[in-house]
Design a protein that fits this description.
The complex is a heterodimer. Chain A is 0% helix and 55% strand. Chain A is built from no helices and eleven strands. In chain A, strands 2, 4, 5, 9, 10 and 11 form a six-stranded mixed sheet that branches. Chain A has a five-stranded antiparallel sheet with strand order 1-3-8-7-6, with no helix packed on it. In chain A, a hairpin with a 2-residue loop joins β6 (56-59) and β7 (62-67). The model of chain B has no long low-confidence stretch (mean pLDDT 94). By secondary structure, chain B is mainly β. Chain B has strands at residues 5-7, 10-13, 19-24, 31-38, 42-50, 53-57, 64-68, 74-78, 87-94, 104-105, 109-113. Chain B is globular and about 40 Å long. In chain B, β5 (42-50) and β6 form a beta hairpin. In chain B, strands 2, 4, 5, 6, 9, 10 and 11 form a seven-stranded mixed sheet that branches. In chain B, strands 1-3-8-7 form a four-stranded antiparallel sheet, with no helix packed on it. Classes of the chains: A mainly beta, B mainly beta. The A-B interface holds A 32, 34, 36, 41-46, 49, 89, 91, 93, 97-107 and B 4, 31, 33, 35, 42-45, 48, 50, 55-56, 58, 90, 92, 94, 100-108.
Chain lengths: 114, 114
């Protein structure tokens, strides 16, 4: 069962515009969410996270929004740059799990066109 | 500060053999997690070690095992390799405490089983 879903396999955005990547989850026990970026032949790079007690977290060009009632989170990148072209993974952590297990979505390929 | 390192980066093994992969976490990180990434299943959690103890385990057969040493370095072992074990194996480390779930990944070991 897919507890974390990224329903858009790919997204194409013009340089300078906003990129919005979406993620839905089904497990109401998730209490911490993260976004990772992955380039080919590299491991995922941590971007930004949010606790379930918040609804927004900002770090430079990256903002994550959490809508707990809809079990939905999104990552906004403003402005988008060609170097942002990568695969973006949404991940979540279950408060009942001991330790640091993360459940990942399937990823969304972002292409930023110059 | 040096990132997570994994050795070897690439490995080709034959069905039935066993393999050991190595991971050195970021200095000061005591938690090490392992993930398997395949095109069909995405990123899946294998297990996590903290202070030489396995804290959590994913849904993988007993052929997959791991350990952690006193310097926090970790190894994972896969015995009796199957074709389906071909994947990118990623190691991630994290600090203890409030930001423990922010995991930092290494570049991965690409295992091909023939």
């Amino acid at each position: 069962d897919q507890q974390v879903k990224q329903n858009s396999p790919s997204l194409s955005v013009q340089e300078g515009r906003i990129s919005i990547l979406n993620c839905d989850y089904t497990n109401s026990m998730f209490d911490y969410f993260l976004w990772y970026k992955k380039y080919p032949a590299e491991g995922p790079t941590f971007l930004i996270s949010i606790s379930s007690i918040k609804d927004k977290n900002e770090d430079g060009r990256f903002t994550v929004f959490l809508n707990k009632s809809a079990k939905h989170l999104s990552l906004h990148i403003v402005p988008s740059q060609p170097g942002d072209s990568a695969v973006y993974f949404c991940a979540a952590s279950d408060r009942r799990e001991y330790g640091n297990k993360l459940v990942f979505g399937a990823g969304t390929i972002l292409r930023v066109k110059s | 500060k040096a990132g997570v390192t994994q050795t070897p980066r690439y490995l080709i093994k034959t069905r039935g053999q066993q393999v050991t992969l190595s991971c050195s976490p970021i200095s000061g990180h005591r938690s090490v997690s392992w993930y398997q990434q395949t095109p069909g299943q995405g990123l899946q959690f294998l297990f996590e070690y903290f202070s030489e103890t396995q804290r959590n385990k994913g849904n993988f057969p007993g052929r997959f095992s791991g350990r952690q040493f006193s310097n926090s370095r970790s190894e994972m072992n896969v015995s009796t390799l199957e074709l389906g074990d071909s994947a990118l194996y990623l190691c991630a480390s994290s600090l203890a405490g409030i930001r423990a779930r922010e995991q930092y990944f290494g570049p991965g070991t690409r295992l091909t089983v023939t």
